[in-house]
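Moderator note: this is an archived Q&A kept for reference. The question asked for a predicted structure of one protein chain; the sequence and the answer are reproduced below.
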Amino acid sequence: MNILMVLTSHDQLGDTGKKTGFWLEEFAAPYYVLKDAGHQITLASPRGGQPPLDPKSDEAASQTDATRRFKGDADAQAQLASTKPLESVRPSDFDALFYPGGHGPLWDLAEDPKSKALIEQTLADGKPVALVCHAPAVLKNVTAQDGVPLVAGKSVTGFTNEEEEAVGLTKVVPFLLEDVLKQLGAKFSKAEPFKPHVVREGLLITGQNPPSSEPAAEALLEALAKEPAGVDS
């Protein structure tokens, strides 16, 4: 199947003068879960080209087997360097969406009308959408077919207020993801900070944090196999 992964193009961490972007593990782990399962992966971002990498996700303490594999994978690196502009992709060309996190999406993808339309059409077509860590922020303006917020009444997860506090960015981010999802009427589910936690409700799959990246991708594989949806894992 054809899976579209959508990454951020935003590289400024608020007004701090520091850099942000996508979180390496949240891209690399799902990329290989999906690729090793035999699926074709297309990468896109709002601006196209090389998406910005959060420098903290490139530090030694943040490395995993998947990130180390990516660093030795010239083909994957070349693919990442040439993401398609989001405006050039069509929902009909893909069987599923996956959004890696990092703080970048809070600024660009959360407000991007092309991303909003892409998610709405994908779900309307009966195809699954998975988002991990800060990426559920892109659901902020997404609506269901009846016009209400997509997440209203749905069980979801994402980077928690406690986790944001732990990384010291509560006052830097444009909004707190947990708060916004709750305000939209979501049933927000969470595990202990930085422990894997994935929620699947129907076609919508959300992961709480970086350690949830791989299990979120595995949940997407289950959804593609048309297995019955459960909630919380």
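Archived answer notes: Residues 2 and 40 are 5 Å apart (CA to CA).
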